[in-house]
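**Backbone shape codes:**
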Amino acid sequence: MDFDDPDMYDRVVKNSNVVINLVGPRLKVKDRDEFEYINIKIAKRIAEACKRNDKIVRLIHFSSAGAKADAESQDFATKYIGEQEVLDIFPNATIFRPTVIYGSNDYYVQTWRTFQEFWFNKVVVTDDCTAQKQPILVHDVA
């Protein structure tokens, strides 16, 4: 999908009654402008396209469990702003705030496998063990 083409959003949702926004940044995204583009601008465009289409009865927007206005992470802070933009445009949107969603052979699982193989099947702890994160299987979310 060409996210820079405003007409593309309308074409994509044209024959739908439910729209699910799963767009999010990959790990290579580092600067604030890229996070704002992905988490705010694209989310806003999707919501606007849904608002213009009378057939759309539900917009489901996937955010993140860490999304909050004062988040230290640029990703979480811009996800929160994106949520607010979506709700301003499409007030009855459903906002999901899951943690990491994983499936077989996806990026998250492959990273852990590579990491574990490198460290001879040991789990390396990189913090003080206070972080709370519970990955969820994609089939459970579906």
